[in-house]
Every structure is written in structure tokens, then in C-alpha cells.
Amino acid sequence: MQLARFFGLVDLGILTVVAVAVLLPPREMYASDAIKGDDHAQLAVALAEARTIARPNDGQATEDFVRALDEASLKDWAIDAAVAASDRAKDSPSRWRALLAASTAYVDRLDVVPGLDYANRALGACEAARDKGDAAACPTWEQIRMQLYQQSLDAGVKSGIDPRRDPRGFRKASESTMREIHIGPNRDTERGSAAPRAGSGSSAPAP
User: What's this model's pTM, rounded to 2 decimal places?
Assistant: First the structure.
């Protein structure tokens, strides 16, 4: 009777679980590479990540790392890496590259609203670097490229079309702000004669 007071069904259950955990053989564990692809692809991602660790304020290193992750189809990792790097590089003139990498990583996952947000931040960081007199940190051609990307993405978001449900419709809406320039052949050359110029058809009077 005294033993029953101190040893109940709950205690028996606990002892049974402990005995099973101790006596059963260990379970087999399986592991696979987080980064798919051959050794070259895995090395490329590892090397790009090492560069971001060695140069945490280098926006170019972050951009290369995010591109390597995207090529390895590690979209969530790419977003996390780009966002974290952009927060670390707040005082870096190349921060816009990390912000742009975050934008493209979001867009690759079809999260266009945060993608547009980071595109706007990238443009702002580029303009801030140029205002400080560091034009080389964000060259004009890079700024123009970002502006075209931001305008296209902004038009797609404003259309209200979900790119997951209607990717073609979203692409068409985003391209609505882009002007097409058609460069065709020279029609005068096709006719075999040059266009007449002023005075070319006149002749001098006979003496």
C-alpha cells in the first residue's frame, strides 16, 4: 500500500518511455546538400558568401552573393541575405547595390510589392551617394538602369495584377511605360537614290 502511494501509473509510463529510449538502437539520420548542383556551383555560393563576410559593407559582394543564391534556386536565402546586408551597410556608398539585390530577390519570388519598396530605397541610396560627391559609387548609367527597372515595376504593381495568377498580364502592365523604338532600313537607300537637297536640281544657264 505504501509503495502504491509513491509509484503510480504516471511513473510507470515515464519509466517505460525511458527504457524504450535507452534500449532501442539509434535512428538513422539522412542529410543532403542544401545547395543543389555540382561542386563548382556549391563552391561559387560559398566563395560569394565568404566575400560578404570579409567585406560586410561591400554592396557589390552582396549583389554577387544574392545572384549566386538565385541561380541555385535558394530564393528565401537570397532575400534574407540581401536584406541583412543592406541593413549592415547603411553608411556604405555602395549600399544601393545591396538594396537593389533585395529588390530583385523579392521579384524573383514574385513578391513585387516589397520588391518595389526596395527598388525605391536603392534609388534613394544611389542619389544620396551622388549628392555626397561620390558619383563613382553609383554611375549615371546604373542610376538610369535602376530608374527604368523601378518605373516598370511600379507600373506593374499599380495595375493591381497578381503576377502569381497572371504573369503575362503583369508583364504587359509593367511594360506599358516603356517606349518602343523601331529602327528600320533607309527607304531612300532601298529606292537607289538619295533624297534631293536644296539646289541640287538646278542647272547653270548657258553662256
Answer: 0.70
